[in-house]
Amino acid sequence: MPRLAGHDTPGPFQLTHPAVQRAPLVFASPHSGRQYPEAFLAASRLDAHAVRRSEDSFVDELFAAAPALGAPLLAANFPRAFCDANREPWELDPAMFEEPLPAWVNSASPRVGAGLGTIARVVASGEPIYRRRLPFREAEERVQRCWQPYHAALAGLIAETKQRFGCCLLLDCHSMPAHPAQPQNAPDMVLGDAHGTACAPRAVRRVEEQLWAMGYRVRRNDPYAGGYVTRHYGRPREAVHVLQIETARALYMDEGRIERLPGMAKLQRDFAALIAGLMEMDWDFLRG
Predict the structure, then answer these.
(1) How confident is the model at residue 9 (pLDDT cuts 50, 70, 90)?
(2) Which residue from 60, 204, 210, 286 could staple onto 32, CB 3.0 to 4.6 Å apart?
């Protein structure tokens, strides 16, 4: 039965199970959450629209057909600007906090340096989020209330799928902004497998070929090879494979207005066809 945490019963994520899981596939959207706490908005220098620039807006809707077709779909309800589920749990910028951080915090990662740690200092377009420094307890609460439950659910889905099918392929779903420097050659989709370390090449090729057949321009690992989810959970030797899918926002949304475009309906149909095709494939080779 579906287990939902929707707008009427807010929770850190929404998890929709199929009536019967038909293949060793799991879909997840860690950055499409849009439930912004009032206290967070009050503490931000940005207005309610500007703070949404870090969202992978509507990605959960793009892959909404997965449960009806036989695969679970996990989507974060909390926004990326509030807590980033595609980071380590404790990638934090010391300059953001009132007191010194514990020694075990990872404060030296490239993501922290860019202002995009577990608790982001800036939105994706570069504007600072906060008016003042935060207490460390605020980071602890967000990790405990958002990051940890999301990853507990994700790890549970992976374990259940592997137990049932002997393997698991997680498709971690994201969106990517326009790249003004390469408007003519920009890809429609980027498939990230951490440069061949997180997913069997044969599985990547299957997804790639279906997208090619639909007419999409597909690139691998450039400029997105996969984040924490891809690299942490992708363990092909243990029969767990992760493939990150980045979709160009221009295909389905107005980035400035953060509004759906008419093209979204076609993309939803194409992703439903992609999922349906993947469900019919033999995935036994993922077992290793």
Answers:
(1) very low
(2) 60
Q: What is the DSSP letter of 55?
A: -
With cut-offs at 50, 70 and 90, classify the pLDDT of residue 244.
very high
- Sheet strands (E) in the chain: 13-16, 25-29, 73-76, 168-176, 189-192, 218-220, 240-248, 253-254, 259-260
**Which candidate, 43, 121, 39, 42, places its Cα nearest to that of 80?**
121
Residue 166's identity, in one-letter code, is G
Q: Does CATH number 3.40.190.10 belong to domain 13-287?
A: no
The packing angle between helices 263-279 and 201-213, to 10°, is 140
Q: State CA 159 to chain mean position distance.
A: 19
126-147 core/surface letters (b: 16 or more CB in 10 A; e: else): eeebbeeebebebbeebbebbb
How is residue 110 written in tokens?
A: 């490239």
Whole-angstrom distance, CA of residue 169 vs CA of residue 26: 6
The residue ranges of every structural domain in the chain are: 13-287
Peptide bond preceding 18: is omega within 30 degrees of 0, i.e. cis?
A: no
Q: What distance in Å separates the CA atoms of residue 171 and residue 28, rounded to the nearest whole number?
A: 6
Over pLDDT 90: what percentage of the chain? 93
